[in-house]
Amino acid sequence: MPRLQSNSARWTICAMLVGIALSMARGALHLSAAATDVVLYASDVTNIQGNWAKWSGSDAAGGQYMASVDYGWSTLNNPLPSPNDYFEASFNADAGTPYHVWLRLRAGSNSKWNDSVWVQFSDALDPNGSGIYQIGSGSGLLVNLEPCNNCGVGNWGWQDGAYWLSQVTTIKFASSGSHTIRVQTREDGVQVDQVVLSPSTYLYSAPGPNSGDSTILPESRGSVSSSGSSSSVGSSSSASGGLSPFHGSPAMLPAKIEAEDFDNGGQGVAYHDSTPGNSGGAYRQTDVDIEPSSNGTYDVGWITPGEWLNYTVNVPAAGAYTVRLRVAAPGGALFHVGFNGASNVWTTVGVPATGGWQSWTVVSVPVNLGAGTQQITLFFDTGAMNIDDFTVGTTPNSSAPAAPSAAPPVTAPSGGGGIVLPVAEWNIEINDGSDAHARQAMDTLLAIGPQPQVIVIVEAWQNLYGTYIDELQRQTGRTWYGAFATHCAAGTWNGSGCASWYQGIGIFSIYPIGSTSSTYFPYADCWTAARAGLRAALNVNGTTVQVFTTHLQTGGCANDQQSRYNSIRDLKAWASNFSQPQLVAGDFNADPDQIDSSSGMPPNFVDSWSAVGTGSRFTAFAPTPTMKLDYWFSDAGGRAQPAQSYVVNGPQSVSDHYPIQATFVIR
Predict the structure, then answer these.
(1) Which CATH architecture does the domain made up of 38-198 adopt?
(2) How far apart are CA 402 and CA 109, in angstroms?
(3) Alpha helices, DSSP H only, in 245-296?
């Protein structure tokens, strides 16, 4: 098919195709038959025990909902292996297919003490194939309707977890056919009218809002594909349904691999291509589209979202490797690199806009590989890119900053196109004012995968602003734009201004900055008379994205908590004067129990880590952080949707904080 040229088409993200990719956890990717959404009503419930019953309600799905009477019971910290109070329903699902679990809940009397349940399954597996949330065990998925601390609840709403926990919310099953879900009491007084297990439509976004919802989905107990299974995995070519290396034997790493030399095996085994025939007409007669490259070989082009390629390789020794991929994308792109077998890697790679289909750049991602024969999978989230070749080599020891661990998978929001924007924030610690420290901090941030296109730093030196810009440009070979603001020196606030301090906050971007402004939050602490807020309006491929940053009060010389609440109130009021989409990053000097509370950033902004974060949330203080102080937020209007967020664990030589990475889809 022709290459996609419009901005909207270029960035189409198809959630129904992404479901195919997530079966990569332990094997090479194979094409799966389509699976259907499971939507269970109260009428589907067949086993009701204890303090649960079916109730009638005109606003419930099918006119009924499951409810427990509010007796004021104590909250259960863990599900019971043999509970007295629960209900069960059966449904059909395919083997190996990822299903995202959603419940529509309502809290009795709209009380947060009546808003949570435990969910278990007869035979659920986590993405790595291990049993999880099993009926008869003390393990379960905690679903808590209230989305943040003291946010409150309001009538029906959708939820898939609990805001204070990092839980697996996407499960799969070992066999196709009938399965059982059990919902047991955590708090009594809870109402449930719909349970959804979605392999496609709601794989990455809820069926409706968290409160005030009126969404009624069509009832479906699910189905099983005609093949009796969906995604399949295998740890070697013999288990991969005909998959074999293009050159006859696995490529021995380290090696350079041409993109067009993907494995033999055909559609759904060696590759998935959405259109018949080779649109480029070169090199191989398959459905993969191959054309001559300006580099003198060939490249794979005409890539659309959801397509993928497999390559069989042999890793001689376990260890740290770096994958370097030569790619071109006129407007930027996003894809995944995976290794199966002993490596079990699945990581995200962002491609900056290169300006043309034959304008090449090299993007790098660090990976930790296990030894042995395995498959590399390239899965294309957005399409609209070409790939020429890639090199997998060992990562040498050097004095350069240590590369961070591989990024977790991006949770791509559904609902249309968008611009993928990887970002990073870091408190780089003010204790070292040397040029070398400034450059090392920038180098460390650029080593994050996917490489950030917007960088926010706090505890930065005003006199090193030029050094920060210079190092970013020197390392990437491209123009960076920046803005900087300093806090007020202690004791100098006069009601409208102050004496500038040496320390401040900065925003840096590969995208042009159309305008900047700053403000002060005049609530003194041990170090400053007022903390600065900084704004930069970025021109991201024609869309204005407002980026804000601040570094809030600390030290204990005053009521810092109230000062932070006052500053956040002022920040939200200030931001309301500017267009959306909006992003906010910085060191807020408080854990989520303050920042994500009703006195904090909600409801105006969504915490990216709370929405899609993986791994530990703690950013301070190295080497054993116990607090989350650093954040990336997006506005609640939905035009900047968080797709990924994780804390980068490792660069202790630069700062006592860890950086936080996030990826947003800008619409």
Answers:
(1) Sandwich (2.60)
(2) 52
(3) none
Q: What is the pLDDT of residue 28?
A: 54
Interacting residues of 456 by C-beta distance below 8 A, sequence separation 6+? 423, 424, 425, 426, 505, 506, 507, 508, 547, 549, 585, 586
Q: What tokens were used for 291?
A: 């054309």
Using CA atoms, how far apart are residues 188 and 367, in angstroms rounded to an integer? Answer: 46
pLDDT (mean) for 458-475: 92
CA atoms of 651 and 645, how far apart (whole Å): 17
Query: 10 Å Cβ neighbour count for 238?
Result: 11
What DSSP string describes 551-585?
Answer: E---SSSS-HHHHHHHHHHHHHHHHTTSPSSEEEE
Helix (H, G, I), strand (E, B) or coil at 300: strand
Burial 576-614 (b: 16+ CB within 10 A, else e): eeeebbbbbbbbbbbbbebbbbebbbbebbbbbbbbbbe
Q: Give CATH superfamily name and number for 419-666.
A: Endonuclease/exonuclease/phosphatase (3.60.10.10)
Closest CA to 335 of 363, 294, 298, 299: 363
Q: Is the dihedral angle over the CA atoms 308, 309, 314, 319 positive or is it negative?
A: negative
Q: 7-12+232-394 with 419-666: one CATH topology? A: no
Q: Which fold has domain 7-12+232-394?
A: Jelly Rolls (2.60.120)
* Band of residue 67 on the pLDDT scale cut at 50, 70, 90: very high
- Specify whether the CB–CB gap between 564 and 599 falls below 8 A: no
Domain-by-domain residue ranges, the chain?
7-12+232-394, 38-198, 419-666
Where residue 180 falls among pLDDT bands split at 50, 70, 90?
very high
Q: Residue 108 corresponds to which tokens in the numbers above? A: 């009795």
Q: What number of H helices and E strands is found in the chain?
A: 7, 38
- Find out whether 603 and 576 touch, Cβ atoms under 8 Å: no
H/E stretch holding 605 reads strand 605-607
Angle at CA 142, nearest 5°, toward 640 and 145? Answer: 55
* pTM of the full structure: 0.48
Task: Residue 180: name the closest of 47, 79, 55 by CA.
Answer: 47
